[in-house]
Amino acid sequence: MRTPLIDAALVLTAALLLGACSPAGEEPAAGPETAASMEAAVSERSADMPAEANDTDVHFLGMMVPHHQQAIDMSDVLLDSDVIDPEVRDLAQRIRDGQQRENERMNALADEWRIDEDMELHSHHIANGMVSPGVYETFAQLQGEELRTRFLELMHLHHAEVIRMTQDQVDNGGYQPLRDLANEMIEVQTAEMREMEGLYGGVPGM
Description:
Blueprint: H1 4-18, H2 55-79, H3 86-113, H4 116-122, H5 133-140, H6 144-172, H7 176-199
Helix pairs in contact: 1-6, 2-3, 2-4, 2-6, 3-7, 6-7
């Protein structure tokens, strides 16, 4: 069943794609990236990686950490604003805290595996539902109901688009603890998306 939030996300996706034709200064969001499309850019396998770890694991870490960081930053904007809706603020706090904990786990793995070059390579990509700098700047300047609505729209898209990459890790990753973490992410973010749909427009269960 389509909801107003899903319709808004579809419109937002189209707007981001049309951004490729926007004037200079508005950076368009890139399309989804997969492990296969990045294979040529992955550096030589680190000797510190476990034998079962593969390129999908490395790609997942490199892409997910900055993706999580943007969600953390977006949540901080909402939490530092004048938005008073307690349910939206609670959601933003849970997204912020949960993705910060996951980033700490993923960064610890990246440090252990010594894949700094790969992490740096992927850190500059705008993909899998991430918003462009221009869109983010506009978002960060909003207040009140406009910010509340925009947060739900952007975060819903942010979650929906990255789930595809996360599923690729579940299906094709070699390192089981990272596959388990990816599966947890899908479960949590899917539940959060349903919560956003209920909060959109201020009518729970909408």
